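Entry for the shared binder. Reason: the reviewer on the internal report wants the predicted structure included alongside the sequence.
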Amino acid sequence: MQSDTDKLTIKHIKWLIWLYFWLLIFEGTFRKWILPQYSDLLLVVRDPVVVAIYVLALKAKVFPRNGYILWLGIIGALSWIVSLIVLEPYLSLKPLILVTGYGFRSNFVHLPLIFVIGKIFDLDDVKKLGWWVLLCLIPMAVLLAIQFNAAPDAFINRTAGIGETQQITAGGGKIRPPGTFSFVSGVIFYAALAAAYLLYGSLTRGFYRNWLLFSAGLALVVTIGVSGSRSVLLAVLVVISSLLAIIFIRPKAMNQFGRNLLIAVVVVLIVTRLPVFKEGVQILSDRFTDTAEAEETSIAGGLIARMFSGFTEAFQLMPQAPIGGYGLGIGTNGGAKFLTGRSVFLLCEGEWGRVVLESGPILGLAYLFWRTLLTVKLGLLSFRKLTQGEIFPIMFFAAGFISLLNGQFGQPTNLGFAVFVCGLCLAFMNKEPAESETKLLEPERRPRRDTARRSRYAERLHHSSATPRNSDDSFDR
């Protein structure tokens, strides 16, 4: 039994988790437009929130105590100690602490939040958060369209900080619009999260209102069209691919989706008439084609190569990595900013390659194995829930497993979405859902009506001649 104090503490933890979410969505707004002079400080604005969550979780005795947390702590402590030893001859005390500290927070500090969210959030929290995700997607799509149409050097397209750099280009004189985020990577994960909620809302009776689902669906199509990013399309397709597992395991769940499919087609047809959507799709199509031609492969082959190249890079770079690595944080943009004053990739751009070069082949592979093991565990739990009739976890797993497995944790937005989406997936799996919330849509059964109704006289006559029936009669069973 939880005391009243613990219940109040858990309530405060929930508030902080919600604050973490809103900061994740809007921290780029502050870094680009409102407080650009404090952009570097705002880069870690969610870190104090995470620490406060952990302190309250320990106080309420809900901080996770499992093998994953134990091994993460051991790997993290060893990695930081080794990095301090490796970099101490080359750096003074201040940059040594800043660089390795930033690397430690990127790799280790936020990950326990996955388990805290899984333990603290209930189904009502998951549903409320999804309502806001879908609602905010509508103005987000409008903002993305405005950014796409604006000049690359327009105020609305400025990057974080006070520098003169511009957003990543998409071709045709257009940039890849980042929305409220600092970079387009935030749009990638937000689109995947929204797609998971959209699919679940379409397959589950009464989860969200139809107006919200259709409006958010329209916004998602616009988001993909004007994003100029192949990764946005790929992230949404991965979530949609979870339908294949649902079709094979829980085919009855597709009843409601089939009823909404026609309306979805009409929405897509309307969107495709918009000039901004046509231009965005053309640029996105050109990027697919140009990349395929440059790599002398098909578009599908290019997508597959793009997905797996990040994993193979680590093993290719392993012979170049010192046994103790080059030091935590050296390969992150934040660590590079402390050392050189510029956000660049000093080691390599890929996440797995960065980890191996920073921490060395032993601790680096141990950390990557930890992330892989957690990803596999979440996948198996999601599939098990699917066999039990729960379709939500498999969709959230599809939305978050790539970011957990191979996301660039040195970029705070990527790290935040990996933690939050996987935490929501675990939250759903840890709870016993109410039947009214998670019942898959099936054709509604109307109550049986009697084919004929007796008159009062016939009813009296019937009861007067009928013999009382024993409750053990087979008709009562």
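Summary line for the report: Residues 351-387 form the longest helix (37 residues).
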